[in-house]
Amino acid sequence: MATHEYEVVIVGAGPAGMCAGLYTGRSMLRSVVLERGFPGGELLNTEVIEDYIGFEHVLGHELASKFQAHAEKFGAEIRTSTPIDSVTRRADGLFDCVTESGDVYVAPTVIVTAGGTPVKLDVPGEIEYAGKGVSYCAICDGAFYKGHTILVVGGGDAACEEADFLTRYAEKVYLVHRRDTFRASKLVQQRAFANPKIEVITDTVVDEICGADGLMTHARIRNLKTGTASELVATGIFIFVGFKPNTGIIRDHVEHDAAGYLITDAMMQTSVPGLFAAGDVRAQLTRQVTTAVGDATTAAIGVEKYLTARKNGQPVPAAPPMLGASA
Ligand SMILES: Cc1cc2nc3c(=O)[nH]c(=O)nc-3n(C[C@H](O)[C@H](O)[C@H](O)COP(=O)(O)OP(=O)(O)OC[C@H]3O[C@@H](n4cnc5c(N)ncnc54)[C@H](O)[C@@H]3O)c2cc1C
Q1: The pLDDT of residue 95
Q2: Coil, strand, or helix at residue 109?
Q3: Percentage, residues of the chain above pLDDT 70
Q4: Would you state the pLDDT for residue 319?
Q5: How high is the pLDDT of residue 322?
Q6: What is the per-residue pLDDT across 71-110, written as a single tens digit (0 to 9) for each?
Q7: Quick one: how far is CA 42 from the chain centroid?
Q8: Residue 311 and residue 89: Cα distance in Å, rounded?
Q9: Torsion-angle region of residue 99: left (phi > 0), alpha (psi -120 to 50) or beta?
């Protein structure tokens, strides 16, 4: 077990973490990016990206490699296979970031860029056809389904809103929900239900995602009230049954929204002084690569200001709260 001292520790090497590392590296801060797996985050689960400005068509893992090379060129130190178990603010204002193997990374600032995890249906075929029919992101993958028939699974705002959004591309959208009432707000429900391209199927679960030649072709569904099983022919399935931000490592009380996303001010600082957050882990309108790297840029510059103030014994700089953020 070893102790390492830095000026800033960045937890997670997805787009946000690598971008934050680039900026802190360029600012000559002693910084480290700690990643539990390989650098790339959700990019490694994404086949193709077509909406990152400057790249009309880039493979997820290619963009991840470019981010890593660029960040490292500017001085980011990325440590892989280093899962962080806990982040705790000490009485002296320093943070202890403890790895699963017991190593401690100590720093006056931490940027949490640990992202989040879409909740899976956990049915056969879901992993096999990931990126080949199975998606958790309508903005990202909707355009690949022009003229297709697809399924959307879920009963909340995300499912209803994204089903409606996906009809821009898809010829037909089945909205499949396991209950007979939806959790989505009334207005969002009404808009989805009034859309002639959407067929709502209630009391029904997806049992299996099936395909041929590596691509999804249909789903096996089952009505929970009657027990009747059937097949829906569809080339895509968009799953919106929840998204969990990876915030369990933070041991201090920190403000978050109802879904657990971290609330920050405009400088990306959380309610814990010196603890910053960027990317998918943060409460915000949308979650994209562009927003993750934008947040990270702001967070890295916020960290610099925080450290300068701390060094000079000045009050910690505070930015106004983000509009729309709620506890
Ligand atoms: C299937 C899919 C397709 C997508 N397609 C697009 C697209 O086309 N365009 C687009 O703009 N966006 C797309 N997105 C969204 C985009 O990938 C995310 O918004 C972006 O990756 C968020 O970056 P992030 O760095 O905040 O988080 P992430 O990418 O989730 O990275 C978080 C990193 O933190 C690490 N981590 C987590 N916990 C710990 C811990 N305790 N210790 C150490 N490391 C930890 C993780 O291993 C991961 O590497 C897609 C998302 C998915 C799921």
Answers
A1: 98
A2: strand
A3: 97
A4: 65
A5: 57
A6: 999 999 999 999 999 999 999 999 999 999 999 999 999 9
A7: 7
A8: 18
A9: beta
Does residue 209 contact residue 120 with C-beta atoms inside 8 Å? no
Is residue 220 within 8 A of residue 229, CB to CB? The reply is yes
Asked whether 295 lines ligand 1 (CB < 6 A), one says: no
Separation of alpha carbons 11 and 34, rounded Å = 5
What's the gap in Å between 57 CA and the centre of ligand 1?
18
Closest protein CA for atom 6 of ligand 1: 140
The domains found in the chain, sorted by start residue, are 3-117+243-311 (3.50.50.60), 134-239 (3.50.50.60)
Q: Does any ligand 1 atom lie closer than 6 A to the CB of residue 118?
A: yes
**What confidence tens digit (pLDDT) does each residue in 234-282 have?**
999 999 998 899 999 999 899 999 889 999 999 999 999 999 999 999 9
Instruction: Decide if 150 contacts 173 (C-beta within 8 A).
Output: yes
Q: State whether residue 141 is helix, strand or coil.
A: helix
Token representation of residue 7: 């000026």
Q: Whose CA is nearest to atom 14 of ligand 1?
A: 288
Q: What is the side-by-side order of every strand in the sheet holding 95-99?
A: 3-5, 104-107, 95-99, 84-89
Residues of the chain with pLDDT under 50: 323-327
Neighbours of 123 (CB within 10 A): 18
CA atoms within 13 A on the CB side of 170: 31
Tokens 């480290």 -> residue: 32
- Report which secondary-structure segment, H or E, holds 307: helix 289-311
Which string of DSSP letters, residue by residue, matches 114-138?
Answer: --EEEPP---TTTTTTBTTTEES-H
Tell whether ligand 1 has an atom less than 6 A from the beta carbon of residue 42. yes
Give the dihedral sign, CA 282/285/289/291.
Answer: negative
Q: In the numeric block, which tokens belong to residue 245? A: 């931000």
Does the C-beta of 13 come closer than 6 Å to ligand 1?
yes
